[in-house]
Amino acid sequence: MKDFNGKVAVITGGASGVGRSLAFALGRRGAKIAVGDVDGTAMEQVAKDLAAENIEAIVEHCDVTSLDSLNALADAAVAKLGGLDLVFANAGIGAGEGGAMWDYSEKDWEWCLKVNVWGVINSIRAFMPRLVASGQAAHFVVTGSGNGAYTILPDAPIYTASKAAVHAITENLHYQCQAGQLPVKVSALFPGPHVVDTGLFNSDRVRPEDLQKDGGAPDSGITSVDDMKRMAAEFGIEMQTTHPDEVADMALRGLEQDAFWLLETTPDSDEKIRARADMILNRTTPVPATLG
Ligand SMILES: NC(=O)c1ccc[n+]([C@@H]2O[C@H](COP(=O)([O-])OP(=O)(O)OC[C@H]3O[C@@H](n4cnc5c(N)ncnc54)[C@H](O)[C@@H]3O)[C@@H](O)[C@H]2O)c1
User: Fold this and answer.
1) What is the rounded end-to-end Cα distance, in angstroms, of the chain?
2) Which N-terminal stretch is annotated as signal sequence (predicted)?
3) Does CATH number 3.40.50.720 belong to domain 8-266?
4) Where are any strands of DSSP class E within 183-287?
5) What does the DSSP assignment read for 6-35?
6) Contacts 24+ apart (CB under 8 A), 270-279
7) Who lines ligand 1 at CB under 6 A?
8) Phi/psi of residue 2, nearest 5 degrees
């Protein structure tokens, strides 16, 4: 897709971070934007900011853990913006995991898997039938994470597990669209190459009442990228970050090429991918990867 002008792009989790940057990057290229999110304050802000740039947009309350909510978002995009051309299944959370996984709150597992995995499944179930029925060229983009897709960082097992599942689903969706010779191109978006400075580390702001941590469950104590930077500095590591606008630009460049991998790496992360493949081929015992 070379020309985004006049296209309708639906973005879940579009009120903040990577999703918000995608909304502006696409809107500035003439696309009409449907944001679905659960964060009322951020939704109000993004609606105001998109309007200030004269970007045609709707901002709807949409909880990706509910198929009905995603169906309503799809209907709203068609009714109010006139179609569906790009879908970004992007909403995601970090569950604030800390300590041993057997001590985690069951609610941590439930919340993270519901949003990160079921959010993608529900998005596929809501949007794919509509995209297939339209018969038009379309993109379905899923935001995954290298942590889970091709590396296993040791500190957030629920998040990592969720993103491993997300990648398997995304790659399979690609194979199924290809096998069916459908005009829907599937892409896997990996925010990076460094930790992206977004609200992901403060996901508790949108944690539902019924899925709060059980009393006494461990917590990572991290609520922002700055917290992570401080923690890394204590180990003598200067942590680099990526701005979400850079991720959105990278994603659009990839979509222009119909690329599956919307992925920017560094020599260091390339080396880690190679080392992981070697570890499997050589049957060596896993050693924990570090953030890069
Ligand atoms: N920040 C990073 O370094 C990084 C790295 C790899 C992958 N990601 C992925 O990028 C995606 C976007 O996250 P981000 O980093 O921009 O964080 P963010 O917190 O800034 O944005 C996530 C958005 O999802 C929304 N959201 C949360 N629960 C929701 C629900 N149930 N229904 C609808 N919306 C919901 C939030 O309100 C928020 O607006 C996520 O899938 C995340 O896992 C982020």
Assistant:
1) 31
2) none
3) yes
4) 184-190, 195-196, 241-242, 261-263
5) T-EEEEETTTSHHHHHHHHHHHHTT-EEEE
6) 272/151, 273/150, 273/151, 276/150, 276/151
7) 12-13, 15-19, 37-39, 42, 62-65, 90-93, 115, 143, 145, 191, 195-196, 198-200, 203, 206, 244
8) -90, -30
Annotated domain spans of the chain: 8-266
Q: What is the pLDDT of residue 185?
A: 98
Tokens 């079921």, residue? 118
CA–CA separation, 290 and 236 (whole Å):
13
186: which 2 tokens? 């599937």
User: pLDDT tens across 231-276, in order?
Assistant: 889 888 889 999 999 999 999 999 999 999 999 999 999 999 999 9
Nearest in space to 36 (alpha carbons), one of 86, 8, 77, 5: 77
Q: How far is the CA of 184 from the centre of ligand 1 (A)?
A: 24
How many residues in total does the chain contain?
Answer: 292
